[in-house]
Specification:
The protein is α/β, with parallel strands linked by helices. It has a single domain, classed as P-loop containing nucleotide triphosphate hydrolases (Rossmann fold), CATH 3.40.50.300. 52% of the residues lie in helices and 11% in strands.
Length: 223
């Protein structure tokens, strides 16, 4: 089973994946938790180029690098794990590409769909948790977590390539996520990421209990 977590930077995906992993372990399920871009050595090198590199990069180049990272991760870890019947928790997947490179960068959505299909090896998520957050709130959260002063636009705040794209980019990306949530309501569960960490976790677990009850034993308590 492939469960993906989506949302703009600062929405709390990593925290929720960690909490869900701990919860599933307590119920006897050992999930494979991975991130995009990254997860395997080659994909991690591509991640460094995408997020830490200083070179100018065209939007199509960016799209294809993200796709290359995904294709390697799918080939080496995700597809084999799914074939073994394991649960995979993935921090970002094709919806991120649509939201960021499609709505955010303006790459043609038909091109995005074709690239996503190739890079994902045709695999789609069984369930997606979309953590919705305004870009302004995401920036405040990220900077406060780093104990940094709020100084939008000042050079001393360390931003990676994607974070440096600006508020308008993230507003467009968020609109892309909202559109995907409407289009794929059968698999996308939208959650207000401004709620407490514990409340978001409880909603995620409650959704899984309802949709995939076999993940939880009757005698165990949700953590």
């Amino acid at each position: 089973m492939l469960i993906t977590f989506e949302g703009i930077d600062g929405s709390g995906k990593s925290t929720q994946i960690r909490l869900l992993k701990e919860c599933l372990r307590a119920h006897g399920v050992e999930p494979l938790a991975l991130r995009e871009p990254g997860g395997v050595p080659l994909s991690e090198r591509i991640r460094a180029l995408l997020l830490e590199g200083k070179e100018e990069m065209g939007s199509v180049t960016e799209l294809l690098l993200f796709a290359a990272s995904r294709a390697e991760l799918m080939r080496t870890l995700v597809k084999p794990a799914l074939e073994r019947g394991e649960v995979v928790l993935l921090d970002r997947f094709c919806d991120s590409t649509t939201a960021y490179q499609g709505y955010g960068r303006g790459v043609d959505l038909d091109v995005i769909r074709q690239v996503n299909r190739i890079a994902s090896l045709g695999i789609e998520p069984d369930l997606t948790f979309y953590l919705d957050l305004l870009p302004e709130d995401a920036l405040i959260r990220k900077f406060s977590e780093k104990s940094l002063p709020l100084a939008f636009g000042e050079n001393e705040i360390p931003l990676d390539r994607m974070e440096s794209a600006g508020l308008e980019f993230y507003r467009r990306a968020r609109e892309g996520y909202k559109a995907l949530a409407r289009e794929h309501s059968h698999r996308v569960v939208e959650i207000d990421a401004l709620r407490s960490i514990n409340d978001v976790h409880k909603q995620i677990v409650a959704t899984l209990r309802q949709r995939v009850p076999q993940l939880f034993s009757a005698s165990s308590e949700t953590r």
